[in-house]
Structure formats: structure tokens, C-alpha cells
Amino acid sequence: MASKLKELCDLFMNMPYKNAIYKFCSGFNVKILLVFAFLLVVGCDLFEYSPYQIVLADDEKNLTEKNLQKIYLQTPDDTVRIILMGDTQRFYDDVDDFVKKANTLENIDFVLHAGDISDFGLAQEFKWVHHIMRKLEVPYLTVVGNHDLITNGPKVYREMFGDFNYSMIYGGIKFIFVNTNSREYDFDGTVPDLNWLEAQLSGDDFDRAVIVAHIPPFDNDFDTEKELAFSGLLRNSGKVDLSLHGHLHSFSESEPYNDGITYFITTAQKKRGFALITLWEGGKRIERIEF
Prior knowledge:
By secondary structure, this protein is α/β, with parallel strands linked by helices. It has 2 domains: 2-43; 61-290, Purple Acid Phosphatase, chain A, domain 2, CATH 3.60.21.10. It contains 9 helices and 11 strands. The chain has helices at 2-14, 17-25, 30-43, 63-72, 92-102, 123-133, 153-160, 194-201, 227-237; strands at 79-85, 110-113, 140-142, 166-170, 173-177, 208-212, 240-245, 252-254, 262-265, 273-280, 283-290. The strands form 2 sheets. It has a 6-stranded mixed beta sheet. It has a 5-stranded mixed beta sheet with strand order 3-2-1-10-11. Strand 4 and strand 5 (173-177) form a beta hairpin. The longest helix is centred in the first third of the chain and has 14 residues, at 30-43. The chain is globular and about 45 Å long. It starts with a helix and ends with a strand.
């Protein structure tokens, strides 16, 4: 019985409820299931006093820094290949299929999650998605989405992943992850943090930069009073030629400011797609992939 109890706990921790219940309950009578249910209440930490509480295992904390360290251990060549996906929310089965598809692709350096990891900002949602994403054969990095900032989502994101704004240099390219979810801050002028972004773009230890942000600057959820300043920083830096986003749940590619900077938006996981992005000196290629 102890092994069956552990199996049920593991199933619930790693799968959507409906799949876990169906898989485990097949072949068991009601009395046995009631015994298991009682044992679960007293014998595992699956059940929570509140859906808003945050209970993370050590391997579920500080994931951004952990994955950055994995990426820094890799040796990039003159071509960087990354996957851009996003808006996982409650689409767990689709995310699982994404991971299976991504793992078939060769020479991928890392995966970028463009935000909206969760739907309601609940810790369990973040955990479910991570338990699927950790099956990737390469590290993954995230940027915070608007759905990740509701209820106690900000605290969950910080504990599980880390800062909302951060950057890294890989293969001579600086990837800048920036919180652009202005509406969740009531358009109070603090998001996006343009002073931080300007400082990130002004370094002399890189020649090229890629922006990663959930909401594109031309969307209504972006602070309209900061749109031109944001796009102007990218243009005036002379280093940015690509800005990557999610949020709109459909593919889109454009140069809305006619400044040579491509703004690319990936689709949501429920639409079963992602982008394969190849970067090399002076060039880029973006492929839309469905699974």
C-alpha cells in the first residue's frame, strides 16, 4: 500500500488532476480509494490549506539562476539556435507534447518561455508547468507574464524563478528579459523599467541584443506613455534587431516602427506551435513550427 500511496502522490504532483485520477483509479473499488484518500490527507503534502499558499521543493526554487548556470557551461558556436514558446497556462497536455517535439530538434541551445506560465498566479500551476518543462533536454528561461502577476503570482514567480528583469550574454548576444506587464501595475509609470533597460543596452561587452518580454510595446496592455520611449531605446542602442514576445496567442512578425527591428510574437501552447530562431553574425531566421 505504501508504494501505491507514493505512486498516487507522484501522479498528482506531476500530472493534471483528471489524468492522474483516471490512471490511478482504474481497477480499484471505492473502499480502497477512500482508504487511499485518507492516507493522502495525513501522509503527503499534496493537499494544501489554501490554494494561495506557496510550498516549493528545493529543486523548484531559483530556477532562473540554476538554468543560467547550465547555459554558461555550454560552449556556443557561431550560430545560436533557440526555441521561443509561451502562454502555457492550463494547457498541460499541449505543453507535454511541446516538450516531446522540442526534444527531437538538434543543436538547440536553450528554450525561451515568453510568459504566462500560469493562468491564475497559483503556485500549483507554476509547479505543474515546471514539472513538464524540466523534461526538456536543454535549459529553459522565462519572462514574467501578466497572468503570472495576479493573486500571489509575483511572490511565486520570484521564489520559483527569480527577478522579473534580468539579462545574460551568450554567443556574443545579450538576451534582455524585461517585465512589460504595465496593466498589472495600473499604468503607474514603473513598468517597463526604462532606466534599467537603458543601462542594459549601454554596455560595451556585447555587440548585439535580443529583447524578451511578454507584452509587445504596441499592445494595449503596455503603458502607451512609454511605448515610443521603449522602442526608441531599442533603436538608439544600435544593437537590437529582434524583440520576442507572447501574450497575443497567435504568430505575428512585423517592423511596426520602421527601424529595422523585428518584433516577433509566438503563439500559445493551446494552438500547438512555437518558433525556432537561428541567430548568426549579421543575420537571423525565424521558423514557425506546429506539433
